[in-house]
Amino acid sequence: MPNVTFAVPQEVFRKMKEHPEVKWSEIARKAVGDYASSLEYKDKHKGTQLLFEADEKGKLNGKFVQRWDAHSTPGVKHLAFAILVLNSKGEFVLHKRPGRKVGGGKLDTPVSHVLSHETKNEAMWRCLKEEYGIEEHIPFVHFDGFSYYRDYGDGTCENEFCLVSIARYDGKIKPNEKEVEGKLMFLPAKNALQEIKKNPDKYPVWFIKSIELLSKDPTGRTYLA
Q1: Distance CA 45, CA 50 (A)
Q2: Secondary structure of the chain as H, E, C letters
Q3: Least enclosed by CB within 10 Å: which of 29, 75, 164, 180?
Q4: How large is the C-alpha radius of gyration of the chain?
Q5: What is the pTM of this model?
Q6: pLDDT digits (tens, 9 = 90+) for 87-135
Q7: pLDDT one-digit tens code per residue, 156-209
């Protein structure tokens, strides 16, 4: 394995010396590795996908934007979606979002964008297949959406109008290790609203806003009961 040497500010070095029990080389290796992975992800998607531009109310303007340009601060408002997969036990299926992705490290639900050549349902079926290995064209219950902006402070951001849909599913899920980090997790839908209020840092902003949207919708509330 190649060796890399780099300098750190004196104050950081002092703090490192105060904590010799910490394996600083491993922390540095992971940080560099995660950043390199994010660059690989950026290079992979740069110029390869066209997304629908939208306004604050989700209205399309007939224009398209490259995926990476849409997520480079300050970004361009575009159409996205979140799919809340709900099993017969009344649990939302969640997974840890890979660190290489924008907003990575949180407990997430299948999310993606409607690409320029897709309908909404086609995009959602593609997403379920890519992330959870679900090949069936299962039906969706569609709700409205919400506009939001989140600047991550590293040159990337979210600037989206996010549609929300529920997919009832009890079949086999085969997580794609490139899209899903670790094991699947399950959140009782009846506890979801309380959970996002209690532990907001565990979830991406779009999941929190999706649950909030459902809680304000008469039909949506039935899925949280």
Answers
A1: 10
A2: CCCCCCCCCHHHHHHHHHCCCCCHHHHHHHHHHHHHHHHHHHHHHCCCCEEEEECCCCCEEEEEEEHHHHCECCCCCEEEEEEEEECCCCEEEEEECCCCCCCCCCEECCEEECECCCCHHHHHHHHHHHHHCCCCCCCCEEEEEEEEEEECCCCEEEEEEEEEEEEECCCCCCCCCCCCEEEEEEEEHHHHHHHHHHCHHHCCHHHHHHHHHHHHCHHHHHHCC
A3: 29
A4: 19
A5: 0.79
A6: 999 999 999 998 878 778 899 999 999 999 999 999 999 999 999 999 9
A7: 899 999 999 999 999 999 999 989 999 999 999 999 999 999 999 999 999 999
As given in the structure block, the two tokens for residue 52 are 């629908």
Q: State both tokens at 200.
A: 């907001």
What is the residue type of 204? Answer: P
The residue assigned the tokens 């086609």 is 122
Return the structure tokens found at 115. 């690409």
Burial string for 68-95 (b: 16+ CB within 10 Å, else e) reads bebbbeebbbbbbbbbbbbeeeebbbbb
Tokens coding 103: 């907003």
